[in-house]
Amino acid sequence: MYFLMGKDAVWKVISRLAEMPHERSGWGSQASMRRDLVDFYRMVQLENPLPEADLPLFCTDQARTKALLNLYSKENGGNLEALKARPMDPRIQNQIESKIIRCLSGWKVLEPDLAKIFDVVVHTLFFQASEGYGGGSLASALGVIWVGENERWEGRDWQEFLLHE
Description:
The strands form two sheets. The chain has a four-stranded mixed sheet with strand order 1-3-6-5. It has one domain (2-164). Strand 5 (135-136) and strand 6 form a beta hairpin. The chain is an alpha/beta fold and 165 residues long. 56% of the residues lie in helices and 10% in strands. The longest helix has 21 residues, at 90-110. The protein has seven helices and six strands, in the order αααβαβααββββα. It is globular, with a radius of gyration of 16 Å.
């Protein structure tokens, strides 16, 4: 939509989505809406290793990361080794996490509706380096984004990536 219809069309859709839940539902808060959405994900995506309770956005659980990589490998022919995924260097991961936090903080100021939607819809960012993949998302793992080793990216790059996914 962003590339076909432009930024204004995207913001209109996002703004409408941000307004609807509180107007037309019994959700009392963003947190309750997020919990209900994760419960919905549980019903429709049995293989998606969803967070329990309110885990932090950045996934550090290696077992959960491996399960997520298995989902990604199924989408790519079922060969986990073909992903060439490996744990990210902690120094690089910390740099990327800081950039993403700044990106999300910027959204809260400049585009609060977008920040609200992101907080509700995306529950997990997991980090893995890979020679063949720079990250991404899957229809079979709603709410999850694989963050690749893109240490040269800056704020706008991360905003575009997160918005795209």
